[in-house]
């Protein structure tokens, strides 16, 4: 083991100074990440640690008849091989358990029985004193199977689709039909009827899923798990193994990307803990890049969108159907079609969403789940409608703009989508777009301009934050939040520094530990609205305590002031509008009052009574230029303008990075990403980033992000709505629409690879 410190706490560079909410501050965890001081789940260890390597099933359905382990057990250094045959008894594994984000159904239970439910399922865990021995021995394990026929091809089994179960928080089934959509469609002069298809996609974060269990002398386990919530991992593991939370701490201080793959604890957590409990030793289990294709993915989805309009472009009918895959175990659900009833005004709307259970592992949320498919199909169909009606695509959207939510007739908490359209179009130069496809060319390249709308939910959950101001002027704020690369460390410290007028380098934000105050899973772009509001609430309580101390000082100049008369700025409590300048440093205040620390706790509960009177969403308008090589069918996305309405922005630099990342992801969805199944094997065949293509530097050109002014005090006290997923919604549609404008070819399946474009 190297001598690197284990518990690195990110903090701003000295000299960063005083910051306000909204300032473009570089991330405080940047230096520890690029210098290798930040340790990820698989980088923790202990001197006597055992290394676990997973053996994966090679069939998609059937039973294990025999495990041949002699050769593997004979490898020097091999300590144990666990499987369904010899796993330790576990309190809940035999019964039923769920993590906090599990969909309806019965979760996959590793090593539960001899049954094989999907290809890649873990069937054995080889444990050895070295990683090399474990890996070699794992390759020697032979498995005899009784194979049964499997079904992994969505399009072949759509006739047995079923309505999804509703038992999942945050899932809204499609609303009932309004008007008579089919009759209105049939009667309208302009019609579009289009089918869309998207294959499965895998998250492929840089950091592989991994769990390190550190076995303490008293049997206490400290578990480093790649997760979007340390408390979710802790909660599930304590239930499965019947361990009290006092004996189990889960940490995720650094996460190398997740994009939803860490919303549910993966099988590496269960297997590593099973081994640690069995051997009473520290254990590390890291999945291989190939095994990153053996758990949740964005589901393969088929869609049909029918849109109809009057001759002037007024929407007359919207019909949107989606059929997506799920597993035999669970009804994984996402909101795919509902957006089509929300984005535009229309009296006749019919939406339908169904699932087909296949012999794959359950899908899992992946960046902008549901919207990535549903809004894509709607926004490509809207482009088709604009073309059919001979109307500019932006003009068509403005003509059908929804001032209130069309489904419920409720007001939006805020909706500055019109400003997104206007400012984005202006920045892009949309008014210079020739209407006809194939109008722009430069050498062998056809040039096209396309646009699309995006929408994502603006959510708030509940969280606690704990803030302690020390006599030396340092503020420590904590909450069991996560930073999956999104900037949580930075933004939370920034909100706290702003509230108390402290230098950013004097504020420490602690996260990524299940023993910290409760925080939700980092998902749904809700960490700022939730944890950020809790942090601000705790800091406001500190303000009140400090002010009370100041008023109580002998001959206090604040004796007759009210809280609204003072501000916290540059390390001081300042009396506003005072005839004589009056400022008292917080350190002197604490010294004079004789206190060493002041602390405050805040529980942030969303104001549901107020919130539920509004529809809460973020919005975007995406404009894009593509250049298509006519001979090769290759597409370059040369210019993207993304105009975002997401309420108050807490950190201009990090929010811009979030949106840029979303745009890159959208380009990736549009042009590159697809997991391929060999249906004779029932297995995802992509094994690495060599065959699973993601957008790389060469695929990304000019990305221009602008935030329109918006302030939403209904979604959060900060005025923020959350950035993250909104950055990708609509991007792939804008690319598809630009390809149509360039080439006259309408492509309705992603990724839009050269074979489809040519
Ligand atoms: Mo996101 S798919 O909520 O991690």
How would you portray this structure in words?
This protein is of the alpha+beta class and 758 residues long. It has three domains: 43-149 and 203-293, Aldehyde oxidase/xanthine dehydrogenase, a/b hammerhead (Aldehyde Oxidoreductase, domain 3), CATH 3.90.1170; 405-459 and 608-758, Aldehyde oxidase/xanthine dehydrogenase, molybdopterin binding domain (Aldehyde Oxidoreductase, domain 4); 463-605, 2-Layer Sandwich (Aldehyde Oxidoreductase, domain 4). The protein has a seven-stranded mixed β-sheet, sandwiched between helices. Strands 16-14-13-8-31 form a five-stranded mixed β-sheet, with helices on both faces. A five-stranded mixed β-sheet has the order 17-18-26-27-30, with helices on both faces. A hairpin with a 2-residue loop joins strand 22 and strand 23. Helix 11 (488-500) runs parallel beside helix 12 and helix 12 (527-552) crosses helix 13 (586-593). The radius of gyration is 27 Å and the shape is globular. The protein binds dioxothiomolybdenum(VI) ion. Dioxothiomolybdenum(VI) ion (MOS) is lined by residues 228, 259-260, 263, 365-367, 369, 523-524. Dioxothiomolybdenum(VI) ion binds at residues 228, 259-260, 263, 365-367, 369, 523-524. It holds the Pfam family MoCoBD_1. Residues 35-149 form the Aldehyde oxidase/xanthine dehydrogenase a/b hammerhead domain. This is Aldehyde oxidase.
In CATH terms, what is the architecture of the largest domain? 2-Layer Sandwich
Bound molecules: dioxothiomolybdenum(VI) ion
How many domains make up the 3D coordinates? Answer: 3
**CATH fold name of the largest domain, please?**
Aldehyde Oxidoreductase, domain 4
Number of strands: 31
Number of helices: 17
Name the CATH superfamily assignment of the largest domain.
Aldehyde oxidase/xanthine dehydrogenase, molybdopterin binding domain
Report how far the terminal alpha carbons are from each other. Answer: 53 Å
Structural class: alpha+beta
Morphology call = globular
Q: Name the average pLDDT.
A: 96
Instruction: State the helicity in percent bands.
Output: 10-25%
């Amino acid at each position: 083991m190297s001598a690197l410190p284990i518990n690195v706490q990110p903090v701003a560079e000295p000299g960063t100074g005083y910051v306000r909410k909204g300032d473009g501050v570089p991330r405080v965890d940047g230096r520890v990440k690029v210098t290798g001081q930040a340790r990820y789940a698989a980088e923790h260890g202990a001197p006597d640690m055992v290394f676990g390597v997973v053996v994966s099933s090679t069939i998609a359905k059937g039973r294990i008849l025999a495990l041949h382990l002699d050769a593997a057990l004979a490898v020097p250094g091999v300590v144990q091989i666990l499987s369904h045959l010899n796993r330790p008894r576990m309190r809940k594994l035999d019964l039923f358990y769920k993590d906090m984000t599990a969909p309806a159904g019965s979760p996959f239970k590793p090593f539960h029985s001899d049954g094989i439910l999907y290809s890649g399922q873990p069937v054995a865990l080889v444990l050895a004193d070295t990683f090399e021995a474990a890996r070699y021995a794992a390759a020697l394990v032979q498995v005899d199977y009784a194979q049964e026929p499997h079904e992994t091809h969505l399009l072949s089994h759509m006739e047995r689709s079923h309505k999804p179960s509703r038992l999942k928080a945050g899932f809204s089934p499609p609303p009932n039909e309004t008007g008579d959509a089919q009759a209105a469609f049939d009667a309208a002069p302009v019609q579009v009827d289009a089918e869309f298809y998207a294959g499965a996609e895998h998250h492929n974060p840089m950091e592989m899923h991994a769990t390190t269990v550190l076995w303490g002398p008293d049997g206490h386990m400290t578990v480093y798990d790649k997760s979007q919530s340390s408390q979710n991992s802790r909660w599930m593991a304590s239930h499965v193994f019947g361990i009290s939370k006092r004996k189990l701490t889960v940490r995720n201080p650094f996460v190398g990307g997740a994009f939803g793959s860490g919303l549910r604890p993966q099988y590496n957590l269960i297997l590593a803990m099973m081994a640690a409990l069995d051997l009473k030793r520290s254990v590390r289990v890291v999945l291989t890049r190939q095994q990153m294709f053996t758990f949740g993915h964005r589901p393969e989805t088929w869609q049909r969108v029918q849109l109809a309009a009057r001759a002037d472009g007024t929407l007359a009918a919207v019909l949107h159907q989606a059929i997506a895959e799920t597993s035999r175990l669970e009804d994984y659900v996402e909101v795919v079609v509902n957006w089509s009833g929300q984005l535009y005004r229309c009296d006749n709307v019919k939406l339908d969403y169904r699932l087909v259970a296949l012999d794959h592992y359950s899908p899992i949320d992946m960046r902008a789940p549901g919207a990535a498919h549903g809004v894509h199909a709607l926004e490509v169909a809207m482009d088709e409608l604009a073309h059919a009606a001979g109307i500019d695509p932006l003009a068509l959207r403005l003509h059908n703009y929804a001032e209130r939510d069309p489904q419920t007739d409720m007001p939006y908490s805020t909706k500055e989508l019109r400003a997104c359209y206007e400012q984005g179009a202006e920045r892009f130069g949309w008014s210079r777009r020739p209407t006809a496809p194939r109008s722009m060319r430069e050498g062998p390249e056809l040039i096209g301009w396309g646009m699309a709308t995006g929408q994502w939910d603006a959510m708030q959950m509940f969280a606690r934050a704990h803030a302690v101001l020390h006599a030396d002027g340092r503020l420590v704020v904590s909450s069991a939040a996560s930073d999956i690369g999104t900037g949580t460390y930075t933004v939370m410290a920034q909100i706290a520094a702003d509230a108390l007028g402290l230098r950013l380098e004097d504020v420490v934000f602690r996260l990524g530990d299940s023993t910290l105050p409760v925080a939700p899973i980092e998902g749904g772009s809700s960490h700022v609205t939730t944890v950020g509001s809790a942090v601000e609430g705790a800091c406001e309580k500190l303000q009140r305590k400090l002010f009370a101390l100041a008023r109580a000082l002998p001959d206090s100049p604040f004796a007759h002031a009210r809280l609204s008369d003072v501000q916290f700025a540059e390390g001081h409590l300042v009396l506003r509008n005072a005839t004589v300048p009056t400022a008292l440093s917080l350190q002197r205040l604490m010294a004079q009052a004789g206190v060493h620390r002041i602390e405050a706790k805040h529980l942030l509960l969303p104001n549901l009574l107020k919130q539920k009177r509004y529809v809460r969403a973020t919005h975007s308008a995406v404009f894009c230029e593509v250049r298509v090589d006519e001979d090769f069918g290759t597409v370059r996305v040369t210019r993207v303008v993304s105009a975002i309405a997401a309420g108050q922005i807490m950190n201009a630099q990090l929010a811009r990075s979030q949106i840029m990342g979303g745009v890159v992801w959208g380009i990736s969805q549009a042009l590159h990403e697809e997991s391929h199944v060999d249906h004779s094997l029932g297995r995802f065949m992509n094994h690495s980033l060599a065959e699973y293509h993601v957008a790389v530097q060469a695929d990304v050109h000019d990305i221009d992000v602008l935030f329109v002014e918006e302030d939403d005090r209904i979604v959060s006290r900060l005025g923020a709505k959350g950035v993250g997923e909104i950055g990708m919604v609509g991007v792939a549609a804008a690319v598809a629409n630009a390809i149509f404008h360039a080439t006259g070819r309408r492509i309705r399946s992603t990724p839009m690879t050269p074979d489809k474009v040519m």
